[in-house]
Automatic annotation (TrEMBL):
Residues 108-352 form the Sialate O-acetylesterase domain. SUPFAM superfamilies: SGNH hydrolase (SSF52266). This is Sialate O-acetylesterase. It comes from Rufibacter roseus. Keywords: Hydrolase, Signal.
Amino acid sequence: MKHILTLRFICILFFISTFLPASAVTLPAIFSNHMVLQQNAEVTVWGWGKPGEPISVSGSWDNQEVKTSPGNLAQWSVKLKTPAAGGPYTLTVKGYNTIVIDDVLLGEVWLCSGQSNMEWSARAGIDNAQEHIAQANYPSIRFFSVAHSTSDVPQQDLKGQWVVCTPETMTDFSSVGYFFGRDLHQNLKVPVGLINSSWGGTPAEVWVNPNIIAANPVLAKSAAQREEVAWCPVQPGKAFNTMIAPLIPFRLAGALWYQGESNANAPEVYAQLLPTLIQNWRTQWQQEFPFYYVQIAPFTYGGTEEWPRLAEAQFKTLQVPKTGMAVIHDVGNTQDIHPRNKLDVGKRLAAIALNKTYGKEDIAHSGPLYRSMKVEGNKIRLYFDHTTGGLMTKGKELTHFEVAGADQKFVKANGKIEGNTVVVQAKDVKQPVAVRFGWENTATPNLFNKAGLPASSFRTDDWPKENQK
């Protein structure tokens, strides 16, 4: 009799769990109060629920319900159309239970990622920190900070929540991200959402899907040679799996990237790695969003050419569609790998976005970028893109130019601005064939355009390092 009663009790429990509703619908952390959704877009909202549970999702901007139900993996997703910037609105998800997300704004959403210079906050120390902190009252700017974590496999959720920009929240947020977002907000007059997913010291490999690295022999070999360190992961995909994958497919306006210092020991590999990362993210999001990045600042790395060669790899990445590069060697610090001037870095990234993404063509977004050269006797004439307003020097004479003949031995050269070109020569090189500009770890050259933006370092040759004497 006892066994019969036990069996009946189990059957009753099974009946209840099978046929009665359960409060099952849930959302990932990226959907929380104070969030920003991309305006004028088709945004994806997703989560989990009981298989077969009827679910409806609606935004108060139009109150149009979109219905779905989870499959056998308890996952669901819907797409909502958003109008132009505005708010606050509510986002409502109804299943057996109801979730209402309050204070939702529609605006521009940007992902900020990289290593320590992107992660760097006002609390860590920036120029004029107290002034910037006190002024950081922007109710229409919102922050989401992704906690550090790692995994061997892609995760579905992460820890974090959206917060309103205040002096208290700005203090611990990415300073570069904040200054970027502030300029966007002030110029576009729309809400801005910033997602900071960065980790100091990380090489770029950890931010790429590990399967992509494994499929590329060059990238896989380079990654395998990395030694473990105490302060961050170094293995491919470790941060991607936990700090990027759970954000997909949250709709973005674009991505910002400030990283490269930890890859300076292998710049030739980075020339493949950064475009691979960009393509990987765009493929995963199924969105060719703009990707704007910082060309790292000069620093005493220990060798002689780590910085210019890594900067060259970043320069070459401009060949990837919808990319832009902020040059910052004039606001760096050759003795500190963490320059404290984050204001100009954020503003230069914002200028790129305002010009290239938002169509404000009157905003200069790039310093001079080398285009081509022409040998003229014992001189070489250099041509540039982005000579906005003409070329100029900050100082009496141009610095950091070198020329070489066929012997591949570079010597210091004199430079002269002629219109939108620069003519260089060295008295000991009668038949010059190549030019280098800013080609040393601590170079802080002084060629600018009249918009005040610095020229990127470059070289006109492709000679291996070991050939130079």
